[in-house]
Design brief:
Helix content: 40-55%
Number of helices: 15
CATH architecture of the domain at 42-180 and 272-352: 3-Layer(aba) Sandwich
Strand content: 15-25%
Strand order of the largest sheet: 1-2-6-3-7-8-11-12
Length: 356
Amino acid sequence: MTGKIAPIADSLQTELARALQRQAKALGVLTAPEPMLGPTPRDLVVQRGTLALYHYRPCADEIYRVPLLIVAALTNRGSVFDLAPGHSFVQHLLERGYDVYMVDWNAPRPDEQRLRLEDYVFDFLPEALRRVQEISGEAEVNVLGYCMGGLLVTLHAALHPDGPMKQLALIATPVDFHEMTLFRHWTDARHFDLDRLVDTTGNVPPEVIYGAFDLLRPATGPAAKLQLWDKLWDDAFVEGHRRLDRWSRDVLPLPGALFRQLVQDLFRENRLACGELLVGGRRVDLRAIQRPVLHALAAHDHIVPHGASQPLVAAIGSRRKQEIVLKGGHASLVAGGNAVKRLWPALDAWLAKGST
């Protein structure tokens, strides 16, 4: 009998030791300083309220002639493109010879609560493009837009068909907002008092935006914690998880007037997909976009589902247009482990054709 009990006791002792080691490891992760994001050197070119334009310092011996402007999402920092040395799309682009700029939005000031799509499409983006032209000395600029940043550059391209954009690369950009089902239900006028929220807050707080994201997949948080617990011994996984988690939690407020416009015109009335969206009194016709377009979609995107982003390429008038669907979610498409093997090379190959 004693011979049978001894292995069981040894096994229990081993499991107890592992549990204590795991708890110590978890405590170390929880108490560690927040990881630093955006390590690639860059210089501030324009700072005007919510608009911030940066120029990354080139590092390759030969630089492509046509500069590249990245437009980050309105709700999150552009650091998703620059998480860490060795895991940075910006660094990858610089090493490949691109002259990289980024519109990385700041939180809107209280006096910017009345900003609307018009301000972004007819003021902020044109200023960013002009400054990129001035610094680079080039008339043409390639543009890459992510999520709502992609929406802004799409609207700009449609309303400025003779503008300086040479190629337009989009990532997870919505066009049919009725296919963003949970967001649409969340903002339904029957139970969501849009005017009261905007009139009360001015700029819609980040907690409201983050809460909406959280509602899309309520099990994601617990599942991510379980996955992290299971992989505590994988230092590379833990570090990547912490960096992406910090980026996802750093949510920006939205100008109240813009939020009202997005909810009313897009989520409730779906005017862009219907060809009825007016920006500055001008109707947005996606067929007016004639420049080359690439749209990269995530196969498992819970924020911008496939049905919301897929109609965009068909609606654009360009003859040279392409859609690619890659493995990943909304953020992991850009910054996950698979991004290095899938999205980054695909964007590099496509952008290179129009960068010389």
